[in-house]
TrEMBL record:
Region (Disordered): 303-355
Name this polypeptide is given: ABC-2 type transport system ATP-binding protein
Source organism (scientific name): Streptomyces harbinensis
Annotated PROSITE patterns: ABC_TRANSPORTER_2
Entry's family note: Belongs to the ABC transporter superfamily.
Cross-referenced PANTHER family: ABC TRANSPORTER, ATP-BINDING PROTEIN (PTHR43335:SF4)
Entry-linked SMART domains: AAA
Low complexity bias (residue ranges): 311-348
SUPFAM superfamilies membership: P-loop containing nucleoside triphosphate hydrolases
Keyword Transport among record annotations: yes
Alphabetical UniProt keywords: ATP-binding, Nucleotide-binding, Transport
Classification via CDD domains: ABC_BcrA_bacitracin_resist
Keyword Transferase recorded: no
Length: 355
């Protein structure tokens, strides 16, 4: 298990990580998410003893990294896939790491095989593609057959097959009872890989909960409704009754209505009561990526000047082409000091499985 308690790191006036408290459990893939500059790499560096906390602690199996006996055999990490001597072959690079850590040379060919680099083991790594470099970095992390594995953005530069391979590798490592901690910018990727999520923004904890709970707490269920084409009166009538019922009604690019805050059976009843025929009434849920974007909206450091949220209040907006007919109850903006934990939420209607 990895445990952070009050973990804080400042670089001069810049606080990169502030008062992080979380545990990373074995037997699970834990996704570590946050926008650029959120403090993910800083946190991982402190886990590995490469940076010293300004205050607080982070321990692995109850000890700070530097006090772990034979640390490279207990903890494997991929922090920077470029951290290798480009003039050395993949095998020579791994042999060097193995020797430094007292790991038998026979393990080198094993890990080269695991990551699929056996055929290029004798080639210099400076000629490697980004994806091959990532594989070599992962091989280095696996070298000591450790129980705890940290991966900083392991799918960077990998093609779809490589991404699938990493995803399956993480799951396999976790299923063997190991602690697997993986950072990423991509919630969609984590949705398919992680069992648990730790989300940080501007160095602070924003969420610490199972992936499924994250979806339930954050996805806003909505209905897509279409009235007969060309019947503007029916459409307007429906918009009016839905708005009177407290619904938030938006238009989709294809002209359908997106209705938030009114359960499907009620929409059907309201349409029936207003004598409006429906051509479509279907349940939908927001994607996990949308939920993540909404959560971290207020904690994004770098934003294009063309982004509609640039210099705006940190509040989630629905996708752009939609025009609100009537504003419903305001969406809760996520304040930094109120991290989400695994507590039951009460969405208008819960998607059966949004993953
Ligand atoms: N050595 C350092 N000196 C000064 N500031 C630093 C240093 N390392 C990190 N920072 C700052 O701390 C903050 C967190 O950086 P960090 O690299 O940990 O974020 P990150 O979440 O890993 O970002 P990314 O996803 O872009 O890699 C950033 O504002 C960064 O500029």
């Amino acid at each position: 298990m990895i445990e952070a308690v009050g973990l804080t790191k400042s670089y001069g006036a810049k606080t990169a990580v502030y008062n992080l408290n979380f545990q990373v459990q074995p037997g699970k893939v834990t996704g570590f998410l946050g926008p650029n500059g959120a403090g993910k790499s800083t946190t991982m560096r402190m886990m590995l003893g490469l940076d010293r906390p300004t205050s607080g602690t982070v321990t692995i199996a109850g000890q700070p990294y530097h006090r772990l006996p034979n640390a490279p055999r207990q903890v494997g990490a991929l922090l920077d896939a470029n951290a290798k001597h480009g003039g050395r072959s993949a095998r020579a690079h791994l042999l060097c790491l193995a020797q430094l850590s007292g790991i038998p040379a026979s393990r080198v060919d094993e890990v080269l095989g695991i990551v699929g680099l056996q055929d290029v083991a004798g080639k210099r790594s400076k000629g490697f593609s980004l994806g091959m470099g990532q594989r070599l970095g992962i091989a280095g992390a696996l070298l000591g057959d450790p129980q705890v594995l940290l991966f900083d953005e392991p799918v960077n530069g990998l093609d779809p097959e490589g991404i699938l391979w990493v995803r399956n590798l993480m799951k396999k490592l976790a299923s063997e009872g190991r602690t697997v901690f993986v950072s990423s910018h991509l919630m969609s990727e984590m949705a398919q890989t992680a069992d648990h999520l730790i989300v940080i923004g501007r160095g602070q904890l924003m969420a610490d909960l199972p992936v499924r709970d994250f979806i339930t707490q954050n996805s806003t269920g909505f209905a897509r409704v279409r009235t007969p084409e060309g019947d503007a009166q029916a459409r307007d009538t429906l918009v009016r009754v839905l708005a009177e019922a407290g619904g938030q009604v938006l238009t989709e690019p294809d002209g359908a209505l997106k209705v938030i805050g009114v359960p499907l059976p009620r929409i059907s009843d309201l349409a029936h009561g207003a004598d409006v025929r429906l051509w479509e009434l279907s349940p939908h849920s927001a994607s996990l990526e949308e939920a993540y974007m909404r959560m971290t909206q207020g904690a994004v450091d770098y934003r294009s000047t063309q982004d509609p949220h640039h210099a705006a209040a940190p509040q989630f907006q629905q996708q752009q082409p939609q025009q609100p007919f009537q504003a419903g109850p305001p969406q809760q903006p996520y304040g930094l000091p109120q991290p989400q934990h695994a507590a039951p939420a009460q969405p208008a209607y819960t998607p059966e499985d949004a993953r």
